[in-house]
Inverse folding.
């Protein structure tokens, strides 16, 4: 079987898109997410909007996949599969925008040379949530610096010195790490590093004035390299691709920045789902409250009712109605974005959760649910009460489901586990203080447990029994869930 690379490209079937002629993008990270998300959009913009942007991928850690990527001359196959508008969808595309990969650990001079290329304009990153952090341990003369902000600051300084700090020589930076206000945090880390290294005030002013650190919100489920299917897919494609990547069709990129960057980043012209905005926070709130909130409010009760993956929940009429009522009747009324945008986002959530290729285990989603509930669901409950003057039925029930899921026992090996109605035990994973608290609930009544949980200020930052009727409703639902979770869900949606 032939190997995908530049020499074989013409013989592997119909190839869409164009090969860019100019390197314009520096990308920190070669993982599946950036390749399925940012590079997919750049490839489309090259084809449909004349962006002509080649991507140089910088390996941010010492060991990675740059060698494998270069063996294929930057080419790889991206498969999007799932549902769109209720119909099965599969899109296969050979991504051509990546020109090469580069390891600063092996070629530090080549890394700095990227900064001296005047055509370079965009920097993209996804170095995990822990990547955007100021460590204070990087030195200017390190080759390379250990942290991502250290590497980036050194690259920015090389750019500054190469062009004398001239106007128009800065970058548009698009960090995709999953932290709040990632752009602002990244800029702060770079400026702290510049102070640590004693770099000039002129350099710091150039960083501030000539570079645009955009805070972004990214949203796409990337299932990555399909290990169990790869060889069958190669047979179908007719070639071998060691960088094969898979993801869901849905993708949303919200980019906060000045209005003019939309012209330099022609993603919308290429038909990509990209929102340019002056404030990313309403879209962050929408994602946390609707997508993440729907997950957190549904999965614990659904697992106790016998389901294993999110797709199972969507196939069950009661659980599907549970999520529908939570989204449309309780979560959306607390958000202030246009109704049509919220409805479109909710519709996409149902399609994403129903995607048979995303086998998302409920137990995986259950990890650290106490802090997730506090961030994703509790604010909606409080906002709903403030606006409507009554309790949201489904979300109030979800608090009872959370408590029931956590009503477990400490095991001989020190772990903490609960038991489902079917008799099988399941692990409960959270911070130790959370597990220790629930271990102390063993033998108490539903009413006693509900009161203890809701008055735990360490959990919620406040006493939730102050919400009128909340304690009584949670206690009643908790007793029902502990008795028969499946019947309790059917009752609350009935």
């Amino acid at each position: 079987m032939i190997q995908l690379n530049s020499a074989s490209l013409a013989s592997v079937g119909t190839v869409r898109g164009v090969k860019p002629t100019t390197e314009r993008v520096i990308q920190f990270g070669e993982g599946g997410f950036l390749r399925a998300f940012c590079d997919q959009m750049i490839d489309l913009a090259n084809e449909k909007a004349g962006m002509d942007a080649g991507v140089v991928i910088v390996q941010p850690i010492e060991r990675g996949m740059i060698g494998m990527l270069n063996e294929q001359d930057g080419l790889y196959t991206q498969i999007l599969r799932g549902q769109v508008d209720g119909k099965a969808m599969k899109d296969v595309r050979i991504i051509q925008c990546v020109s090469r990969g580069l390891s600063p650990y092996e070629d530090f001079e080549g890394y700095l040379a990227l900064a001296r290329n005047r055509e370079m304009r965009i920097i993209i990153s996804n170095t995990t949530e822990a990547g955007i952090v100021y460590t204070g341990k990087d030195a200017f003369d390190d080759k390379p610096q250990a942290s991502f902000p250290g590497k980036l600051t050194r690259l920015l300084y090389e750019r500054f010195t190469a062009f004398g700090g001239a106007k128009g020589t800065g970058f548009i930076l698009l960090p995709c790490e999953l932290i709040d206000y990632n752009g602002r945090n990244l800029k702060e880390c770079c400026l702290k590093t510049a102070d640590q290294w004693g770099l000039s005030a002129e350099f710091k002013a150039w960083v501030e004035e000539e570079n645009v650190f955009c805070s972004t919100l990214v949203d796409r489920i990337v299932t990555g390299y399909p290990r169990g299917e790869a060889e069958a897919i190669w047979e179908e494609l007719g070639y071998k691709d060691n960088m094969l990547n898979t993801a869901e069709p849905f993708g949303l990129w919200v980019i906060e920045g000045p209005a003019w960057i939309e012209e330099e980043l022609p993603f919308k012209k290429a038909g990509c789902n990209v929102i340019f905005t002056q404030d990313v926070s309403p879209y962050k709130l929408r994602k946390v409250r609707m997508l993440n909130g729907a997950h957190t409010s549904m999965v614990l009760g659904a697992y106790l009712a016998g389901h294993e993956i999110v797709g199972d929940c969507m196939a069950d009429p009661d659980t599907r109605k549970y999520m529908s009522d939570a989204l449309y009747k309780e979560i959306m009324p607390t958000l202030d974005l246009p109704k049509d945008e919220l409805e479109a986002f909710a519709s996409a959530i149902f399609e994403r959760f129903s995607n048979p290729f995303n086998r998302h285990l409920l137990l995986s989603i259950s990890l650290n649910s106490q802090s997730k509930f506090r961030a994703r669901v509790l604010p909606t409950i409080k906002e709903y009460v403030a606006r409507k003057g009554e309790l949201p039925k489904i979300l109030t029930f979800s608090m009872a489901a959370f408590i029931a899921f956590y009503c477990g026992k400490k095991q001989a090996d020190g772990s903490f586990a609960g038991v489902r109605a079917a008799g099988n035990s399941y692990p409960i994973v959270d911070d130790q203080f959370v597990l220790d608290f629930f271990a102390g609930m063993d033998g108490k009544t539903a009413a006693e447990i509900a009161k203890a949980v809701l008055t735990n200020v360490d959990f919620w930052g406040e006493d939730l029994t102050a919400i009128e009727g909340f304690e009584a409703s949670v206690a009643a639902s908790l007793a029902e869930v502990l008795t028969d979770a499946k019947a309790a869900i059917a009752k609350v949606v009935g």
In short: The chain has a mean pLDDT of 96.
